[in-house]
Specification:
There is one protein chain. It is built from seven helices and no strands. The longest helix has 27 residues. It starts with a helix and ends with a helix. 20% of the residues are buried.
Length: 166
């Protein structure tokens, strides 16, 4: 690889990361735990994006690509660990039951707590939905069919509502 080509690749990569930094943080925030601090998840996601970037074929948008790599990085990290042992739009939350004296920040923390109890794929889907990604893009990122995305999201919302009522 020529120096000029490498310099162009690095420039394009840095621009992609800057434009999608919020996406990476959002994805990582859904998987943060004592075992997986935000800094580690973010750094691992960016590293994996860099490793895969030369093979990016422009068949999807940068944001779709970033979502997919960041999600796979977070999920893979959790899988590896489990083998070893061991401002968000909340449009449907009016149906969720929170304590009346909780403020908005506490409600948001409670929502994230409920979401963290979901299975890995469910968390990924609800994250993308909360980011107001179109169902077609969610299907591309996750590899699910459009119909499957719609069905799973409906069930996940119902599950969260049920969890909040317990």
């Amino acid at each position: 690889m020529s120096k000029q080509h490498r310099a162009e690749l690095e420039r394009d990569f840095i621009r992609m990361i800057r434009e999608n930094e919020r996406v990476i943080y959002k994805v990582c925030s859904f998987y943060v735990s004592d075992d997986f601090p935000m800094e580690d998840l973010y750094q691992e996601s960016v590293l994996n994006l860099w490793k895969a970037f030369p093979r990016f074929r422009n068949e999807s948008s940068y944001s779709t690509y970033v979502y997919r790599v960041a999600l796979n990085t977070c999920i893979s990290g959790i899988r590896r660990k489990s083998r070893q042992g061991q401002k968000v739009s909340l449009a449907f939350t009016e149906e969720l039951t929170f304590e009346p004296d909780m403020n908005q920040e506490e409600n948001l923390r409670e929502m994230y707590r409920l979401i963290r109890q979901l299975k890995k794929l469910e968390r990924s889907l609800i994250l993308l939905w909360l980011e107001e990604r179109p169902y077609q893009e969610i299907a591309e990122i996750t590899g699910l069919s459009l119909c499957n995305v719609a069905t799973k999201l409906k069930r996940i919302k119902e599950k969260l509502i049920k969890m909040s009522n317990q």
